[in-house]
Predict the 3D structure of the following.
Amino acid sequence: MRIGANVETVSVPACIYRRGSAAPTIQSYRRAVDTWVEGIMLRIAPLWALTGWIVLVAVNIGLAIAVSLSGAL
């Protein structure tokens, strides 16, 4: 599993089992799944960060409105 790879470099192996080669092992399947999952996570991570910022801003706005309506300022 590659750590810190660019999104463009991560891809699912197109063919694990080639004719004339040894049969695929559990390790080769695990490697393929690890690469596939890492590619998905690299694509999703920026969205999670953006969602976190949106939630943080929404909570801050909500608190500001609540404080201003309560007359505490």
